[in-house]
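Notebook entry, cofactor series.
This is the third protein in the set we're modelling with a bound small molecule. For this one the ligand is adenosine-5'-triphosphate. I'm keeping the input format identical across the series so the outputs can be compared line by line later. Sequence and SMILES below, as received.
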Amino acid sequence: MLEAINLDCVRGERRLFHNLNFQLKAGECLLVRGENGSGKTSLLRMLVGLTPPAAGAIDWRSSPIKKLGDEYRRELLYCGHPLGLKDDLSATENLIFSMALTDELVTQDAVYEALGKAGLQGREHLSVRALSQGQKRRVNLARLLLQKRTLWVLDEPLTALDAQASQWVVRVIDQHLSDGGIAVLTTHQDLTLAGTVHVIRVGV
Ligand SMILES: Nc1ncnc2c1ncn2[C@@H]1O[C@H](COP(=O)(O)OP(=O)(O)OP(=O)(O)O)[C@@H](O)[C@H]1O
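Returned structure with ligand:
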């Protein structure tokens, strides 16, 4: 369903990886490992169409993602390294705002429920500026419960999370995979998922 074919990544003067190949089917996860600066975020940015590969192709349901455009993006949920939250808005407002940008209607109750599951009950109306780093990360990850997307691309989703929140994220990803979703993620932490997990290492 998601296929990377002979991908090359060049950043500045450096070639970060060459001839990278993988295939992910429904219910499968790709864990991208590598040291700092090895090209994990660069690979994820390629997979979501933000950075073109120096060579190679990325196909979704056997068509190039470049050709699919919005059709691909409608099936994609990308949680990048920067959290993309507006500091002046509350957690609730941030989620409603980001859902409106995707044209997916969401009720305030659904947002409260997602924030509650993310461990933010009672913090729904605080401005994001007043939240801790881990709480901000939880707001960003609450999108996983609201946006109905097949492919999740998650860059360091466990950063700043405590053990309990990390376990919650693992459960949410497991559920997504058992529902037939696909996930690609990076993390420097140990992570055990129940489904099929492919691991690739980028960098030398
Ligand atoms: N726009 C750019 N121009 C030049 N070099 C870049 C650019 N973006 C990233 N790089 C370089 O590419 C390399 C890989 O960066 P990337 O963010 O993909 O690494 P990473 O594996 O995700 O690292 P980390 O574990 O620290 O998050 C780094 O050396 C970085 O400086």
